[in-house]
Design goal:
With 247 residues, the chain is of the alpha+beta class. 34% of the residues lie in helices and 11% in strands. β3 and β4 form a beta hairpin. The protein is elongated, with a radius of gyration of 20 Å. The chain binds iron/sulfur cluster and FE2/S2 (inorganic) cluster. FE2/S2 (inorganic) cluster binds next to loops. This is Succinate dehydrogenase iron-sulfur subunit.
């Protein structure tokens, strides 16, 4: 495949950025999207040009760091992470536009890399269970109903990629927040801190500059882990209960 790439270039957080066009040739449809960018960077290195900075780590759909807006869609045209997106999803001769996440709470660091540490601070605000658990207990010693255990497990698959924020017209992190609240709130270990947790995490979310949820649903459509929208209902319910409890 031969492709034209329109890529956001930005020297650093202080500089203005702009789209630049590049051509890449002989791209295999079996390559991942990041391998295609690697090919372009090898080409730029050979030409003595600055390679394109983009974030990645595991390349296995686990870490959530490969955050790219591809043709206006978070992680591109498939329901997967950018690292698991393959070039067979594109056509020979196609022009592909590649941008960083666009959200006030995720400032651009360089080219396609954004700073997602706002998510870390939301987790630090309450996304944990702070009891001294000692060594791992026998699995059946803390009974959890199967439906609750399965729901907790399903939403624990959130990898913190931020696609939900990038897709949301309000730049809201409600799906991420709802996943974390639901994950801990469904399990017995999460109950003692449940009300304080939601109050602290929502306060940090708002402090970081994420927007409010208006039930548009773009977030769940862009989520590579298919986190369902009803975690936001859980978030709102827990927040209401925490306010009633005086948190
Ligand atoms: S809810 Fe989905 S889109 Fe949002 S951070 Fe988690 S995995 Fe990524
Ligand atoms: S690089 Fe880790 S999820 Fe894509």
């Amino acid at each position: 495949m031969n492709l034209t790439l329109k890529i956001w270039r930005q020297k650093d957080a202080q500089s203005a950025g702009a789209m630049q066009s590049y051509s890449v040739a002989d791209i295999s449809e079996d390559m991942s999207f990041l391998e295609m960018l690697d090919t372009l960077n090898e080409q730029l290195n050979e030409q003595g040009e600055e390679p394109i900075a983009f974030d990645h780590d595991c390349r296995e759909g686990i870490c959530g760091s490969c955050d790219l807006m591809i043709d206006g869609q978070a992680h591109g045209p498939e329901v997967t992470t950018t690292c698991q997106l393959h070039m067979r999803s594109f056509e020979d001769g196609q022009t592909i536009t590649i941008e960083p996440w666009r959200a006030n709470a995720f400032p651009v660091v360089k080219d396609l890399i954004v700073d997602r540490s706002a998510f870390d601070r939301i987790i630090q605000a309450g996304g944990y269970v702070s009891v001294n658990t000692g060594s791992a207990p026998e699995a059946n010693s803390v009974p959890a109903p199967r439906d609750k255990a399965m729901r907790a497990f399903n939403v624990a698959t959130c990898i913190g990629c931020g696609a939900c924020v990038a897709a949301c017209p309000n730049g809201s992190a409600s799906l991420f927040l709802g996943a974390k609240i639901t994950h801990l709130g469904e399990l017995p270990q999460g109950q003692p801190e449940r009300m304080g947790r939601v109050a602290s995490m929502v306060a940090q979310h708002d402090h970081e500059g994420f927007g409010g949820c208006t039930n548009i649903g773009e977030c769940t459509g862009a989520c590579p882990k298919e986190i369902p929208l009803d975690v936001i209902s859980q978030l709102n319910k827990d927040l209401r209960d925490s306010l009633r409890a005086g948190f």
